Amino acid sequence: MSLPIGIHDLSFASTEFVLPHTALAAHNGTDVAKYHVGIGQQSMSVPAADEDIVTMGATAAAPLVDRCGKDRIRTVVFATESSIDQAKSAGVYVHSLIGLVPSCRVVEMKQACYAATAALQFAIGLIRRDPSQQVLVIASDVSTYEPDSPGEATQGAAAAAMLVGADPALVRIEEPSGLFTADVMDFWRPNYREAALVNGRESVGAYLRAVEGAWKDYTKQGGRSWEEFAAFVYHQPFTKMAYKAHRHLLSLCGRPADRDTLERDLGRTTAYNAVIGNSYTASMYLGLATLLDQADDLTDRPLAFLSYGSGSVAEFFAGTVAAGYRTHLRTGANHEVIARRRPLDHAGYRALHAWSLPADGGDHSTPAQTTGPYRLAGVSGHKRLYETR
Ligand code: COA
């Protein structure tokens, strides 16, 4: 049997603020049931002016090094589609903020919401070469759409950090993977734009085609049979999307998509995403955190993962939950990440949405809004300046 490799520790972070969908609905004159039921979202995380993908990534990663140490981390992979720099990896800032050793490689990866799964597979390959090493994978994103566009209700922000290593305490990631790529324009963000462009209907259809393609390849590669999975963890741009995808796969496999089946397979994966919103690369891993925190004992049970990134790439793979995983969970801290956010009214949300870091090359301080451990203190000569509390 090959050496088990997978997710040893998992932590996530989100933002200082939250906008309840009731406030958005009241402003738009939309029936709030469209948000709560139609897309399955209750609220969305909104970053403060002094938060970004780096501060969230460092906040998510710091508890991992506090618990597991730094010495074995020789690689950091930062996955994001809301990158802050075209050249420098956001991971280098995090490496510095959390005090990792210099003998470490750091790189940023991108393929829309899929990139964290590519990072995880890259990490597994490195650990297969040298099982004494650990890889820190950070998925961090701020999802931004134009105000008053259909995508607006599916914004959000969060970072998930995973320590990947041999003999993992949480989930052993298995081979094979089912893969799928198709060149589609369902969602994209040209370099000159802050907000993403999305063709909502096309993105739902592209997601379903990718799920189908990845599942078919998974079975062709000799993967597990459907009945073996205790739960299905999907990428969740909005939680209703996971239900649409699962219904699609159930129908493809000739299985009934009744309410009990859907709740058993997915019901315990959506709670965190429903209140955080779309966190792009982090979303599926927040789904895993929700499942591990909420489900009855999953020891030795296989889980199915469906990672999707617009554009589009998908991967279907399995992971088995390790014995003793419950002693490694961060359930209390995860609840606190959600509970600590301060509610915004609609005007406050709009002000933050319109705010952006000055781009004139001057010296600028950012308003001190966040109460988290790391903050974006300002910018000077086009360089972002971070500080630790
Ligand atoms: N009560 C309950 N449900 C309601 C409702 C109400 N009052 N009003 C509408 N709905 C339902 C609709 O029937 C629809 O459900 P369905 O998809 O199961 O048919 C759902 O709510 C959404 O309504 P719709 O009119 O399609 O919404 P929209 O045009 O505002 O767009 C998205 C919704 C999700 C397509 C849009 O928010 C979007 O583009 N988000 C970005 C998606 C994305 O991130 N994609 C890239 C990553 S995969």
Question: What can you tell me about this protein's structure?
Answer:
- With 389 residues, the chain is an alpha+beta fold.
- It has one domain (5-388): Peroxisomal Thiolase, Chain A, domain 1, CATH 3.40.47.10.
- 34% of the residues lie in helices and 25% in strands.
- The chain is built from 12 helices and 18 strands.
- The strands form 4 sheets. Strands 1, 4, 5, 6, 7, 8, 9, 12, 13 and 14 form a 10-stranded mixed beta sheet that branches. A 3-stranded mixed beta sheet has the order 3-2-15. Strands 16-17-18 form a 3-stranded antiparallel beta sheet, with helices on one face.
- Helix 6 (200-220) crosses helix 7.
- The longest helix has 21 residues, at 200-220.
- It is globular, with a radius of gyration of 20 Å.
- The mean pLDDT is 97.
- The structure holds coenzyme A.
- Coenzyme A binds at residues 31, 33-34, 37-39, 150-151, 153-154, 187, 198, 200, 203, 207, 237-238, 278, 310.
